[in-house]
Amino acid sequence: MSNIAKIAIGTWSWGVGGFAGGNVVFGNELDTNDLKDVFDKAMEKGLNLFDTAYAYANGESERILGELIAQYDRKDVVISDKFSPGMQNDNAENPVLEMLETSLNKLDTDFIDIYWIHNSADIERWTPYLVDVMESGKVGRIGVSNHNLEQVKRVQEILKPSGIQISAVQNHFSLLYRESIESGLLDYCKENEIQFFSYMVLEQGALSGKYNEKNLLPVNSNRGKTYNPLFPKLTELLNGLGDIAKKYEVSPAQVATAWAIGRGTTPILGVTKVEQIEDAVQSSNLNLPEEEIRYLESLAIASNVNTRGGWEGQA
After folding, report:
1. What is the pLDDT of residue 48?
2. What's the mean pLDDT in 254-282?
3. Where do the domains of the chain lie?
4. Lower Cβ count inside 10 Å, N or C end of the chain?
5. pLDDT band, residue 62 (cuts 50/70/90)
6. DSSP 8-state assignment for residue 203
């Protein structure tokens, strides 16, 4: 895993279409030309790991990412992509392999570095298909996303007879959603050399320091509808992030991200602007002491906010 960047670039907000497109979730309408400078800056700064999924705008995120990667040597880019249960073709002999092929075509590549099962729906059905995926030679590593501790252990049990195991877990993880700490999943991953990728570290911008009770997220977007009502409860946490940010002369977003890194995870940051790449680089260089990590968690706990998404079970 030495070639894996400290921070991954998330592409959930790239592309328009479907129930999970950037237009629906984030209020964005971004295509390849809008993101070229962002991608180029990420590559320049060594942030070469990009996380996508067929579910993101029904493959439009993959298409955009593929078009941006085409300017570079494929070996210099690390692609993370996902099979999404619920979006499969049930008539296919192996629906996971079929979606993988669709994603490869969208990305215009013959290899995906990390391939995931996107959610924990019907683990007994979908997990065995990962054996064929690994044996296809078109995937470097496999992982699971939105699985809790018991589900991760069950996936390992199902795969063990084939001599295959997952090497990555990708879950919602932030100051406002700490279930992977409290359940023991994060410790399990560390003990078993499983890389933990944390997504929604900034809670879709709510912990970026740019938004608060007086300066709301886009009101017609899904994220605005979710987080705007929560801001009155987040005042102390946002102030705490701001205080630490001033101390280190960084942004609150960088502090929230550094917290996730300090917890031993690889954050996936959704980026749409060049300056957000600079934020990501600075975050990766910010090492918070243990007392500040605990202080931020105490403020988060006191807020009594839990941002579990409707797509995930208790982790």
Report:
1. 97
2. 95
3. 8-303
4. N
5. very high
6. G
Q: What is the CATH number of domain 8-303?
A: 3.20.20.100
Q: What gap in Å lies between CA 53 and CA 146, rounded to an integer?
A: 13
DSSP letters along 211-237, please?
--SSSPSPTTSHHHHHHGGGGGGGHHH
Do 144 and 151 contact (CB within 8 A), yes or no? yes
Q: Is the pLDDT of residue 206 over 90?
A: yes
pLDDT digits (tens, 9 = 90+) for 125-145: 999 999 999 999 999 999 999
Any long-range contacts for 308-313 (C-beta under 8 Å, 24+ apart)? Answer: 308/172, 308/177, 308/179, 309/172, 309/200, 311/119, 311/146, 312/119, 312/120, 312/146, 312/171, 312/172, 313/120, 313/146, 313/148, 313/151
115 in Cβ contact with 79 (< 8 Å): no
Q: Is 191 exposed, middle or buried (0-12, 13-18, 19+ CB in 10 A)?
A: exposed
> Residue 222's pLDDT band (boundaries 50, 70, 90)?
confident
According to the model, what pLDDT value does residue 313 have? 57
Query: Is pLDDT of 2 > 60?
Result: no
Q: Whose CA is closest to 236, among 302, 192, 179, 189? A: 302
Residue 35 dihedral angles phi and psi, to the nearest 5°: -110, 0
